[in-house]
Amino acid sequence: MNPRSGAGWQTSAILIAALVLLPVAALLCFALQGSVGLWPHLFRNVLTNALAQTAILLIGVGIIVAVIGTLTAWLVAGFDFPGRRFFGWALLLPLAVPTYIIAYAYLDLLHPVGPVQSVIRQILGHDSPRDFRLPDIRSMTGCILLLGFVLYPYVYLPVRALFTTQAANQLEASRTLGAGPLRVFWRIVLPLARPAIAVGMALALMETLNDIGAAEFLGVRTLTVSVYSTWINRTDLPGAAQIALVMLLIVISLVLIERRARRGQQYAASARRHLPLARVRLRGLAAWAATGFCAMPVMIGVAAPAAYLIRQGWRRIAFAGIPPRIWSEAAQTATLALVATLVAVALGLVISAAPRLYPTWLARAAARISTLGYAVPGTILAIGLLPVITFADRRISDVLGLFLAEAPQLILLGSGAALIYAYVARFLAIASGGIEAGMTRIPISLDHAARSMGRSPSGVFRHVHLPLSRASMAAAGLLIFVDCVKELPATLLLRPLNVETLATHLYGEAARGTYEDAAIAALLIIAIGILPVALLSRNIRS
Fold first, then answer.
1. Which tens digits make up the pLDDT trace of 213-228?
2. Sign of dihedral through CA atoms 222, 223, 224, 230?
3. What structural domains and CATH numbers belong to the chain?
């Protein structure tokens, strides 16, 4: 058997890793093109304020997602109270709502003349916003609260999974020794949950750093907003690239902090089967307090804004019908997301299969590097991709100029290829992670049996891996499709001219203050986002 017969899979994995790293390398080169004297100006007028606001936002959101995610996971996994089964899956629903939709909804809900403050004034007997008004939602506090109540499922999901599996035996042992609920929580639950909390917080903070719509709507000038305004409003692309480098350093720091938090926090599992966690039944005030605490993030994170959007959407349809352009925007959104999903799943198959078909350290390293795009915000990817795509467009135009009198200039940018590239690079980790998880369930003995029957590595992939990985491919593809539909920063920066998606349509309407016209687009995005949440809920129950 030729030991190098699978070298093509390793080469493919290396090429995919290079494509993912290319935008980051281009970003470094592009940032160097800026004037050296630009840094003092950026630091004095942009970075100082943006870094301070970004740091405050990350700290605030990190505290909220850790507290809400951990406590709700502990309540649902360890106790029995009214509504526990409902909250088991309902607490995942904020994952279906992009942060910019939440901000857009609450800007109108909590406006001084909006429904919430109007009702409060009627109850208190006031007639004018000058007599009574709540603090402005357009503030750092408002942004922290809204992002925290949307992103907490990133902590809730891994922490609950840990409580219901690895933690069950330890928790049961502590209970039999007479430890009370509070002592169990502080001495057992929190130490056990630290690795899962660290992973969830890192993901939530990366999503916070990637956000552009919510922060801009709520008046918080983060680094991401600064990158967008520097590029679009000031037409200073090298300056935007230099700010993006600062963002990249923060992302790397978050990854390192998360890994350091998990270092030395692994727990060995015993050989015997894990016992299911026996829930403690809460009664009286404690039971209803648990219900209220679990209901609060569901109400704030999804129920209230969804009800508002349904009301606004119905008013828009009753007054002027469904906007005709919404269907073309939905078609453009679906087309871009579908193409990116198919490409990402195809590349994810290669990345997942390469280390198995050609098990070398180089293949494994390339597979891991190719998944780093998920940790890079869409804004950074967009800026890094622009010089790459522009260079490719020029070369293609030069070649076409040899055969055409007037060769087109925007081939890749004009066709949406740059946006699809950004989607694939950013969400490739979802494809490879989901497919790799499915492939680990395929016994290696099937590979050996197929090779002993004369199958090449490609034959093993076609006849063994591909048929047995269809379920994981479908699940990963669904998640990628929904993430592509929701992605806003990269779409804003790289979409072709005169192309609107549901996300950019919502962003534009919210920026103009025409909330009713954007409600239908927001509802469509949420409806699509419900699909992966239902899949996650089903997996948890099983």
1. 888 888 888 888 887 7
2. positive
3. 1-33+322-500 (1.10.3720.10)
